[in-house]
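Reposting from the mailing list since nobody answered there.

I have sequence plus structure tokens for a pair of proteins and want to know whether others read the tokens the same way I do. The first protein:
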Amino acid sequence: MGGSRAGTARVARAARTGGAALAGVIRAGAGLAPVAGALDVRTLAGLSINVAIDRIVDAFCPPGILDEDVARLAIGEALATALSRVDTFDPAALDADSVRIATLTFVGELVFVQVAGDGGKSLAAAPSPAAAAQREADLRSLIREVTDVVGTPILQAAGNVLTPDAMTNLVSRLVEAVEAEMSAW
């Protein structure tokens, strides 16, 4: 993978936009106003969860950014996973566990993109489309498990991280730690 620092550098823009989105969601869950110029996620209360997630992704991961697809897919997946228990968006219901799930899912998706991209032909060389899909699912599952084991203590030590810059740094640290663990295998 070129080392954990190289992998972190390759997803830096996606980490920055995703970190800003996560910070916006965390601030809304804490009842705080957004940082200047950012979407006030609290205004999405009452919308269907899918509409709210789409608006968050559109606001923090606008079209035209580098790594646009990576950032949009990763943050969308992270929020959908963290908020899967509800149908209507309620920022007040965003508890510490939802934030942990969203952050770790986001990091896992960034690492998956890196590993799958670096794996290239070896992942695609499966004997059948079903086997290729199973390899991808197994890889994603492994990465999510490693992300949870490695990332949870880092998140717990970080405490309440509310600014976009602090979340970006945290996401980058988590990506680096997970990729370092994966590269040791």
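The second protein, same order (residues first, tokens after):
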Amino acid sequence: MSAGDVTNLWLAEALFRLGGVKFGEFTLGRTTVGSPIYVDPKVLLREPRILARAARLIKSELEAGLAMREPRFHSFDLVAGVPFGGLHLATAYSLASDVPVIYGVPPKMDGGEPKIEGRFKEGESVLIIDDLITTGGSLIETLGILKGAGLAVHDAIVLVDRGQGGGERLKRHGLHLVPLLNLSQMLNFYRSRDMIAEEDFKRSLDYVRTHQADDAGR
């Protein structure tokens, strides 16, 4: 597969083929109740070559965004993976780009004070990487840990935005979000390729359009 073949819609198809998109009725955390669609980007771990391609897609998106006359991203010294879904993506990106990776450890993970794993210097700039966003709670938690350590954070990139208000919430916290895919885009692609049933398509699209998560959760 050439670099040109690794596109956003390639990623949508890869997630589907690996079983990362399911239809039914799902409760995801405290905020997403009765969702007819479940997206699990962690299935990329099943295929290291596909995970590596996803990392190259992130790299291409960042390089293109930074090269624009009005860049879509701030330049950055480090990337930070959001536990746990963003850690493997940030690591894969780090291997593809030679950009060092760190991650913030919330107090709830070890019962102590928030801390950062990895080497960094106060004042360095960090890009946050995660796999999926619903309300943005995990990203905001990571943002707080990084800023608390004296790091500058302006942007985050995620594979999938469920379209339930997370991007707007991050904006209120001063964090600019760039998703590679959103749920509506994925659903339209799957339906156009006859990969999903009309009923699943309509139920899921209606859910996306009518459900905005509250100010908590992932």
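Reply #1 (J.P.):
I read it the same way you do. Residues 214-218 have pLDDT under 50 and may be disordered.
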